[in-house]
Amino acid sequence: MKSNTELLMPREKMLRLGISSLTDVELLALFLRTGTRGKDVLTLSKEMLENFGSLYGLLSSEYEQFSGVYGIGVAKFAQLKGIAELARRYYNVRMREESPLLSPEMTREFLQSQLTGEEREIFMVIFLDSQHRVLTHSRLFSGTLNHVEVHPREIVREAIKINASALILAHNHPSGCAEPSKADKLITERIIKSCQFMELRVLDHIVIGRGEYVSFAERGWILSAMRDPSGSLSVRDLSTSPSQRILRHL
């Protein structure tokens, strides 16, 4: 009876106004279902979000952090980790079944679901066909807290193996700051040059931080790297407008 009473308000609000109408506190309460002794589920949810700063902080935390909060044990920790994993798998399935990429937001949300919270740098590639439909995505390289060694030849080899025509590159910065380093820019240029030899297009390189991202395409760095030493784009790259070349997959 207690759980039904506690869930009544967020559940009724969801049924009446839709799931997006719920606040973070109400949505968390809907998942947790029950509170603790002397604390209803809405109060507990509010305190948890305040303790961890945000949904991101809550869902990316470790059990040791939970054990220090009164009344939050392994069961609720497992529930929250399950929520985070469900979201990650949802985006995995969505990327496989919905193509082409529908929007910049979908691409970014997918990459954030895959890379946010990782403790090491991970370098991912999304492989696309000639219509920019998703063929597959792969974590090709993993590294340390602040470095990952990337081999352009391996990326090209994987693309040829599955007959890909275009790529979206991505990696995370565990530090939380998404601003690309000089090394990030240099490896992106190397990958683009390697791909051009095989008529593969690099559409973007997205760096994921904590609650933020940087898109190389949005900053014009992809087009800049496509230029040959004379400052001209290749004939193949001139076949479409600049916005189509970089954003046709969106």
Question: Looking at the structure, what is the overall shape?
Answer: elongated
Classification by helices and strands: alpha+beta
Mean pLDDT across every amino acid position: 81
CATH topology of the largest domain: Cytidine Deaminase, domain 2
Q: Give a quick account of the main beta sheet: strands, pairing sense, barrel closure.
A: 5 strands, mixed
Name given to the CATH architecture of the largest domain: 3-Layer(aba) Sandwich
Order of helices and strands: HHHHHHHEEHEHEEHH
List its traits:
five-stranded mixed sheet; alpha+beta; elongated; 2 domains; disordered C terminus; 250 residues; Cytidine Deaminase, domain 2
Describe what you observe in this structure.
There is one protein chain. This protein is of the alpha+beta class. The chain has two domains: 2-86, no CATH class; 101-247, Cytidine Deaminase, domain 2 (3-Layer(aba) Sandwich). Helix content is 48%, strand content 14%. It contains eleven helices and five strands; from the N terminus they run αααααααββαβαββαα. Strands 2-1-3-4-5 form a five-stranded mixed sheet, sandwiched between helices. Helix 9 (182-197) links the parallel strand 3 and strand 4. Helix 6 packs across helix 7 (104-115). It is elongated, with a radius of gyration of 22 Å. The termini are far apart. Residues 232-250 have low confidence and may be disordered.
